[in-house]
Write a structure and sequence with these properties.
Layout lengths: L6 H16 L6 H4 L1 H11 L4 E2 H8 L3 H13 L3 E8 L2 E8 L1 H23 L1
Antiparallel strand pairs: 1-3, 2-3
Length: 120
C-alpha cells in the first residue's frame, strides 16, 4: 500500500534524532549555563576579549563573570592571560580548541533537539 508510512515506521525514522537528543553524554552542562554559554559564544566570534569587554557585553557582575570564566578555564575551554596596561591590571580571555569543540557539540545537540521537537 503506497502512501503515508505507518506510525511504527515514522517512529523508527525519528528514533535517531530522538536518541541523539536523549543521549546525556552529548549534553555538556558546563556549557549550558547562560553566562558560560554567553562567554563561549562571544569568544567564538572574537579572537580575544578582556574581562571588562565581556562584563559589558554580557551585563554581568565582576564576581559572577569571574566565577564562570574560572570554571571554563578549569575545563580547558578558555585561556586566561593576565597582564598590565600601564599600571592597570588586564585580563584577556580566548577560546581554546577544546572550547570551540564543546560549543559546537552543544549547538549540534540543541539543533537536534529543535529538529526533533518540530517533527512532532
Amino acid at each position: 500500500m503506497a502512501g503515508k508510512p505507518s506510525t511504527a515506521r515514522r517512529d523508527r525514522e525519528k528514533r535517531p534524532a530522538l536518541e541523539a537528543v536523549g543521549d546525556a553524554s552529548k549534553f555538556d552542562r558546563l556549557v549550558h549555563e547562560r553566562l558560560r554559554l554567553g562567554i563561549l559564544s562571544a569568544l567564538a566570534v572574537n579572537q580575544s576579549l578582556s574581562f571588562s569587554e565581556l562584563k559589558k557585553l554580557l551585563d554581568a557582575s565582576d564576581g559572577n563573570l569571574s566565577i564562570h570564566a574560572r570554571k571554563l578555564e578549569e575545563a580547558g575551554y578558555v585561556d586566561c592571560t593576565k597582564s598590565f596596561a600601564g599600571r592597570m591590571p588586564r585580563t584577556d580571555y580566548r577560546l581554546t580548541a577544546a572550547g570551540r569543540r564543546a560549543l559546537e557539540r552543544y549547538l549540534d545537540h540543541m539543533e537536534a533537539l529543535i529538529q526533533a521537537t518540530r517533527e512532532k
